[in-house]
Design a protein that fits this description.
The complex is a heterodimer of chains A (about 250) and B (about 300).
Chain A: E1 4-13, E2 16-26, E3 31-35, H1 42-50, E4 59-64, E5 67-68, H2 74-79, E6 82-85, H3 97-103, H4 110-119, H5 124-127, H6 138-152, E7 156-160, H7 168-183, E8 187-192, H8 195-198, E9 203-208, E10 211-216, H9 218-228
Helix pairs in contact in A: 3-6, 4-6, 6-7
Chain B: H1 3-12, E1 28-32, E2 35-40, E3 45-52, E4 55-62, E5 72-77, E6 82-93, E7 98-107, E8 112-123, E9 128-137, E10 143-153, E11 158-167, E12 172-181, E13 186-195, E14 200-209, E15 215-224, E16 229-238, E17 244-253, E18 258-267, E19 273-281, H2 285-292, H3 298-309
Parallel strand pairs in B: 1-5, 4-6, 5-7, 6-8, 7-9, 8-10, 9-11, 10-12, 11-13, 12-14, 13-15, 14-16, 15-17, 16-18, 17-19
Antiparallel strand pairs in B: 1-2, 3-4
The chains are: A alpha/beta (about 250), B mainly beta (about 300).
Chain lengths: ~250, ~300
């Protein structure tokens, strides 16, 4: 049994099925990757797990430690230990980096905030009193968001496109942070269509048109993805034969 | 109650904001109603105060080249629940002088108080004058605040002003600032206000960039909730070559509150340039969701976002 289980989750947005009868288990303390082409439903799945507005009317169930979280709001899910790092982090005009990190932190002390910033490779003396606004680059905001998640000490981290819009140095810091989550026993679910990011995971799920086509080792999924998904060779739902029964 | 005791009580009402008024090198002036209840001056600064029936008239003069190391602290206020306080201020900053003024206006028990400020400010060439006015009101919101200021900004001079009303209920604010800017001058005007209940907030900010290369930024950040109303009229005019300016108005609206922004930008010279942006709406949903995904409830997350906007 996984720490987080999706049972027959289907979701329709704007009349179009986005998630199709998904059943997936995510194991505690592991780094998982959800890989697939654009439009496969990866980000929708993350939003659904987080319970964001507009993504809560799904069929099926989501279980955390065996208990349904379907009726919980975003903040209630977060207080149970689930959080999300956005592909494009929000800008907060005027809100200082230290207050942003401390807002959801387990330990709200200045020392803990400094430690979180240091872990993502940002000098606290230079960044703690800056605003989380347009004066920061996309990479800096991504690292600050990650610092806020490290300080939160979540159990399950959903990371949507962690490599999107950042430079190599920032990406390396994000991979360092992944190790930090792993050390603390957190479960990480990375959404990506990058093979580089995929290689930092321990298990991978291949998504296509709202279904999980396959799961398994990084090598297996990476090979399939490179051969069959770039470019994608079908536009509609995968056939039953293409679907692989997903079991824990 | 003695003057000293009144001054003490006024300063105590500032809470966390009142702790920095100490030391012989810090100039300060405390005015309760129409009486000066405390004062201390430093070299280079002259303050003449006359008592009026309903307030005071103050002439503040900064000597040529005088540069005050520490901010001058002004504290205006009234402890009773009702009354009128009128502050007539004439400020003259001579050439090359520089000073910062922190003005606290405190009405902790207000039920029906009017606070009027009529200020004329002349900032001579090469001088710098910063004026930061923070209002601290009680929970009743029974204050009518009418700050009216006219500024003449000389060549190469700088004027920075901030008006902040975040703690307590605003009441009614009729804010009216006009600045005429000469060549190479710099104007930076900021208003930050949080309106609640039935507060009424009217902001009129006008900057006229009359001289070459004069620059200005007018910023208004307002949050309104409940049944509050905010109307913001920012006007920036550029009439000379190289004059540049920006108008920025952001308003967050919640509940049954109403916000309105009217930015007016006028350019009278082909080598002048003014930009403006205005954003009015509810709290940004992505900001809200980000904070909620860290475990903050919706109300706490909203307050933090508004705190940031008004910081």
């Amino acid at each position: 049994m996984g720490v987080l289980e999706l049972r027959n989750v289907s979701l329709t947005l704007g009349g179009k099925p986005i998630l199709n009868d998904l059943t997936v288990d995510f194991w505690e303390g592991h780094i998982h990757a959800l890989i697939g082409p654009n439009g496969a439903g990866k980000s929708t799945l993350a939003s659904t797990i987080m319970g964001l507005p507009g993504y809560t009317h799904h069929e099926g169930d989501i279980l955390l430690d065996g208990e349904s979280i379907k009726a919980l709001t975003v903040d209630e899910r977060a207080r149970r230990g689930i959080t999300l790092a956005w592909q494009e982090p929000a800008r907060f005009e005027g809100l200082k980096v230290d207050r942003f990190i401390a807002a959801g932190a387990k330990d709200k002390s200045a020392a803990a905030v400094r430690e979180a910033l240091t872990r993502v490779g940002l000098d606290p003396d230079r960044y703690a009193k800056r605003a989380v606004d347009r004066t920061l680059s996309g990479g800096e905001r991504k690292r600050i968001e990650l610092a806020s998640i490290l300080a939160m000490r979540p159990r399950i981290v959903l990371m949507d496109e962690p490599d999107s819009g950042i430079d190599v140095e920032a990406l390396n810091r994000i991979f360092d942070a992944l190790s930090g989550f792993k050390e603390r026993g957190a479960t990480v679910i990375m959404i990506t269509h990058s093979q580089e990011v995929l290689r930092h995971a321990e298990h991978a799920f291949l998504m296509c048109n709202g279904c999980v086509l396959d799961k398994g080792s990084i090598e297996k999924i990476d090979g399939y993805f490179a051969d069959k998904c770039i470019p994608c060779d079908h536009e509609n739902l995968p056939t039953d034969e293409e679907k692989t029964a997903v079991t824990a | 109650m003695s003057d000293a005791a009144v001054a003490q009580e006024l300063l105590a009402s500032l809470g966390e904001f009142g702790g920095h008024i100490s030391g012989d090198d810090v100039a300060h002036l405390e005015v309760h109603g129409n009486e000066v209840v405390g004062a201390h001056l430093v070299p280079g600064l002259e303050v003449d105060v006359d008592s009026l029936d309903d307030g005071i008239s103050a002439h503040i003069h900064l000597d040529r080249g005088a540069r005050l190391a520490k901010p001058v602290h002004l504290c205006f206020g009234m402890l009773p629940e009702t009354g009128l306080q009128r502050i007539v201020m004439d400020v003259e900053v001579e050439e090359g002088a520089a000073a910062s003024v922190l003005a606290h206006c405190t009405f902790p028990n207000a039920v029906d108080i009017t606070h009027r400020m009529d200020a004329e400010v002349r900032i001579a060439p090469g001088a710098t004058y910063e004026y930061f006015e923070r209002h601290l009101h009680g929970r009743e919101g029974g204050v009518l605040v009418v700050p009216r200021t006219r500024v003449q900004l000389g060549e190469g001079a700088r004027f920075k002003t901030e008006f902040e009303l975040i703690k307590g209920q605003a009441g009614v604010i009729e804010f009216d600032y006009e600045v005429d800017s000469a060549a190479d001058s710099l104007l930076d005007m900021v208003a930050r206000i949080w309106g609640r209940g039935k507060d009424r907030i009217f902001i009129h900010e006008t900057g006229r960039l009359n001289g070459e290369n004069a620059r200005a930024v007018l910023q208004t950040h307002i949050a309104v909730q409940d049944q509050a109303l905010a109307e913001v009229y920012n006007t920036l005019t550029a009439s000379a070559a190289g004059a540049r300016g920006h108008v920025d108005c952001k308003e967050i609206v919640q509940g049954g509150a109403v916000a309105k922004a009217v930015p007016i930008v006028e350019v009278h010279h082909p080598r002048a340039h003014i930009t403006h942006e205005a954003a009015i709406g509810s709290v940004d949903s992505k900001q809200l969701q980000t904070l909620m995904a860290r475990g903050l409830g919706e109300e706490r997350a909203t307050d933090l976002i508004i705190d940031g906007l008004l910081a």
